[in-house]
Structure formats: C-alpha cells, structure tokens
Amino acid sequence: KRIKTFGLNKLKNLFMVFLFNFAVKKFNSPKSILIIDEFFDSYIDNSKILNKSREKILLINDVGEVNVVKNNKNTFSKSNSLKILVYGSLSAKKGIEQLLKSVFEQEFNFNIEIMFAGIPDDEVNELLKKFNSTKKVNLIKHLEYVTQKLETELFCSCNIVWMGYSKTFLQSSGVLYQAWSAGKPVIASSHGLIGHRVKQSNAGILVDIDKSIEIREAINFFSQDVLKYRSLVKNAVVAGKKYTKKTFINSLLDSIYE
C-alpha cells in the first residue's frame, strides 16, 4: 500500500539517482560511468553537483536500434525527379506541414517526388488529405507498417531524407543513421542534436524549420549543384560508418580499458 501511494515512477526515479551516485562514488576508475545522451553530457558540465564527478563520466556514441541499409547508389540527375523521403512515425514533430507548404507555395523548375512511409497520427493523416499531387510535385504515400524490403527500396531510391523536426524536438533519430548508412544526405533542422550532428558531419543542409524560404533554397540546392550533392553523399557514407554496432562496441571497450 505504501509503494502504491508513493508511486512506482517516483520510486524508480529515486532508485536511479541513488544508483548513479553510488556508481560514481564506488568505482575508482577515472572513467566509470558511460552515457549516450549528449544533452545530458552538457547538463553535467553545467551542474554544480554532478560536475564534481565529471572525470568519472564519459560520453560514447549511441548506434540505436535501426535497420541499416547498406546502399550508397545515388542516381540523381537534372532529368529526374528529386526524390525526398519522409520516413518513420509520421507526426507533426517531423515538420511535415512545413515541408508541404514550402513545396506547394511556389512552383519549382524541376519535378519533386515526396515519399511518405510510416504510420501517421490523426493530425498528419488529415494534413495529407489536403495536399494532392500536381504535374510538378508527386506525393507517394505508404501510410502503413513498412516492411524491411520496402524500407530498403525507399532508402535506395531516394535522393534526400527529410529530417526537419519541429523546434520542440531536441533529440536525435535512428532515421538519421539509416539515411547516412544508405549514403543519403539530409535536409535537417538546424537546432537540437540532429542539427549538431549534421553540422559536424557536413552530410546535409541545415534549415530553420519555420522559414519556408530556407527549405525551398535547400531543395533547390540539391537540384542545381550536382557536384556539391556528390560531396554530401561522400560525407554521408563516412558519417554512416561512424555509427555502426561495431564502432559502438569499440567505443565501449576503449572506454573500459583506457
């Protein structure tokens, strides 16, 4: 009864705080605690309490649980449609409305194909009903559970992966690693962990998600500068190799045995 009244979530949180502090104090290794959250790492730097144990805490890369598509074939040319993939759980936080409004508000001088793949929430489902394909913009909708076969086909056939998350979303995403593993550059929001990683890797174009002109300029860029596009593809391949299970395990081993 006492546990039920207190709340299991509060009990769990207290236990985790106790475990974290116990681990920091107990182990003598200079780098005892391994974390995968870059924002938590920044929080530790700014925390008066946790910063005292800063030398015991080490940030490592998180590969995430994602299906990695190993295909870096990119067939984009000016004679083809520019294919943009919007993949995963389709919700408002993915900046889908901003993308659609930017694409439809003014006609491009080339064809665009936007592929939506994943299960949409009610808000996005209603939003997608408001937009229809035109001569210049073709909308392809796989609004369902995506099989591994279809997932591979989508990542192999697209030219760009959309990562334009809303400003309330500060985390990273497994889709980012899938895109890079497939050798695909991204159009990504400039804020948060996604923006930070794209900037570091130079494997995509960063935009302010609330500025339609920046989204349009990014899309235009991919159609006009083929050499730069190929450069971003190469950077995406390099970035994809950094976030594999092998490199994740190696970073763990290096941390433990350093």
Helix fraction, binned, reads: 40-55%
**Strand content bin:** 5-15%
**Apparent shape:** globular
Tally of DSSP β-strands: 8
Helix and strand element order: HHEHEEHEHEHEHEHEHHH
- Which class of secondary structure composition applies to the elements? alpha/beta
Unreliable sequence segments: 1-6, 62-66, 75-79
Instruction: Round the Cα radius of gyration to an integer and report it.
Output: 21 Å
Structural account:
With 258 residues, the protein is an alpha/beta fold. It is built from eleven helices and eight strands. The strands form two sheets. The chain has a six-stranded parallel sheet, with helices on both faces. Strands 1-2 form a two-stranded parallel ribbon.
Chain-wise SSE layout:
Elements: H1 2-6, H2 8-26, E1 33-35, H3 38-46, E2 57-59, E3 82-87, H4 96-104, E4 112-117, H5 122-129, E5 137-142, H6 148-157, E6 160-163, H7 174-181, E7 186-189, H8 192-201, E8 204-207, H9 212-224, H10 226-242, H11 245-257
Parallel strand pairs: 1-2, 3-4, 3-6, 4-5, 6-7, 7-8
Helix pairs in contact: 4-9, 7-10
